[in-house]
Specification:
The structure holds two protein chains of two kinds. By secondary structure, chain A is an alpha+beta fold. Helices cover about 35% and strands about 25% of the residues of chain A. Chain A is built from five helices and twelve strands. In chain A, helix 4 runs antiparallel to helix 5 (about 275-290). Residues about 275-280 and about 290-295 of chain A have low confidence and may be disordered. Chain B has helices at about 1-25, 35-45, 50-65, 70-85, 95-120, 125-160. Classes of the chains: A alpha+beta, B mainly alpha. At the A-B interface, helix 1, helix 2, helix 3 and strand 1 of A face helix 1, helix 3, helix 4, helix 5 and helix 6 of B.
């Protein structure tokens, strides 16, 4: 465990050099975001199968637990009956799970068809590994048409943007991430601003002047001006408005309409034939649980 | 060569594991930072140029997993490695408690350095210390197990001669 003086000097010099190197890389990747994605695709392709395997194991375990392990401890007298009940319960649970999944996928399809967004439905199979950023990994990649920069949406609203793609998986940066920004406007007054993530489960609406009337509860939708998100998709609602003295802008907090902690299925928007009014209508239909009202 | 591949394999598995734990529902603030434990291990078992470069590389891998900035974690890990490697003659992580304390301090310092390098997080929020301390605590709790595992694997990779890592067994 002895570290010689020369060895220690060598470590210090090398560390200093690598530290400088990392600072240069940080500065460069901040100016050139595409540089940060170099290698991410390969890494995602390597780690995503592990995520998918665990996801599968989790589902299987849940299913086994519901259908078999739950029977342990049943008294002998009622063993057969309880086994039958448990089997039926397991099946019912499974069917309920299928039904819910079907509802979610149907909602995605509704959004897809009514808003005329062309997209690829994807399952969320993993979270951002570092624990600091806000991102998820989904099981659709370039082979299914996903590309860097594509918008990712949910029937309830905007989810984020694809930032790295491998053949079979994509890394999605959520709108709540610090480095995420979406050009938006209020649904009623059409006031424009930029929604930026703050790392928690909400965002902030920036660049709105103090003179602009904003109320808690105002719905925020995408403006379509950023060239990423189609116009009219719901982002969230204003949850807090604060006006400080000495500043020109308001501090506006936005509660995201999608529960990003419980994402399961999302739609990667590969293209659109956009009709904004219908998008908003579709989302309000999905939100209120109504279905079937479609316009051509 | 074998140690380099083993390091990369461990880094990839650790990154995947951190993502999986998040996906399974564990709150971000309680997800252990397995890679910091690995850097702590390297700083004691491989207090040389190899350990330094590997710390940088595993940091880069963690940066790449976020697809946002390349470099903040790499820089943080290099600093952690450098400090611990230079102190490795005076510090010992043979006991579980010592391993936990050193890991706890490393995670706290690593996260602060990451925030400074990457400007990724508003430090003046209540969530920040909660997250840093939560991650440091959870990482410190798993550190003895991970260090013990690494020690055994490293010894096997080194063959008959276990190098400087022979005394790094926290369990």
């Amino acid at each position: 465990m002895s570290t010689g003086v020369s060895e220690r000097k060598k470590i210090a010099a090398l560390s200093f050099g690598l530290l400088c190197c990392s600072l240069l890389l940080t500065a460069y990747s901040a100016r050139h975001p595409s540089f940060a994605r170099v290698g991410t695709s390969a890494l995602v392709e390597v780690i995503a199968p592990l995520h998918a395997a665990v996801d599968f194991a989790q589902d299987s375990t849940r299913s086994v637990w519901g259908g078999y392990v739950g029977l342990i401890g049943v008294s002998e007298d009622n063993e057969k009956l309880r086994a039958r009940i448990s089997e039926l319960d397991g099946e019912r649970g499974l069917l309920e799970e299928f039904k819910r999944e079907n509802d979610r996928l149907r909602a995605l399809l509704d959004l897809n068809s009514v808003s005329q967004l062309r997209g690829v439905a994807a399952n969320v199979i993993g979270d951002e590994p570092s624990g600091w950023g806000q991102g998820v990994i989904v099981n659709r990649g370039s082979l299914m048409g996903a590309r860097v920069g594509m918008a990712v949406v949910h029937p309830r609203g905007v989810v984020g943007q694809v930032v790295a793609v491998s053949p079979n998986y994509s890394h999605v940066l959520l709108i709540t991430d610090h480095s995420s920004g979406v050009d938006v406007m209020t649904q009623d007054s059409r006031v424009r601003g930029v929604v930026e993530g703050v790392g928690a489960d909400h965002c902030e609406l920036r660049y709105v002047s103090k003179q602009t009337p904003l109320r808690v509860g105002d719905t925020i939708v995408t403006s379509g001006m950023d060239g990423v998100f189609p116009k009219g998709l719901i982002v969230g609602v204003v949850s807090k408005v604060a006006v400080e003295t000495g500043t020109l802008l308001q501090n506006v907090e936005v509660k995201v309409s999608v529960d990003l902690n419980k994402l399961e299925e999302v739609l990667i928007v590969t293209g659109e034939q956009h009709q904004p009014a219908k998008v908003e209508e579709a989302q309000s239909l999905v939100k209120s649980g109504k279905q079937g009202k479609r316009r051509g | 060569m074998a140690k380099g591949l083993l390091s990369l394999l461990y880094a990839v598995v650790a990154i995947a594991l951190q993502g999986i734990l998040g996906h399974l529902g564990l709150a971000d603030r309680f997800i252990p930072q397995f890679l910091v434990v690995f850097v702590v291990y390297l700083s004691f078992a491989e207090a040389n140029a190899f350990g330094c470069v590997m710390s940088f590389i595993v940091g880069l891998l963690l940066d790449l997993s976020s697809a946002v900035l390349v470099g903040p974690w790499a820089g943080s890990f290099v600093v952690i490695f450098c400090v611990l490697a230079l102190l490795s003659r005076r510090l010992f992580i043979d006991s579980g408690i010592a391993a936990m304390v050193i890991t706890f301090a490393s995670v706290v310092c690593g996260n602060i350095l990451f925030s400074l390098f990457g400007d990724e997080y508003p430090v003046l929020t209540w969530e920040y210390p909660q997250r840093v301390l939560g991650q440091a605590l959870s990482t410190a709790l798993v550190a003895p197990l991970v260090l013990g595992f690494l020690s055994r694997r490293w010894r096997r990779a080194n063959g008959a001669y276990a190098g400087r890592g022979t005394s790094v067994s926290a369990v």
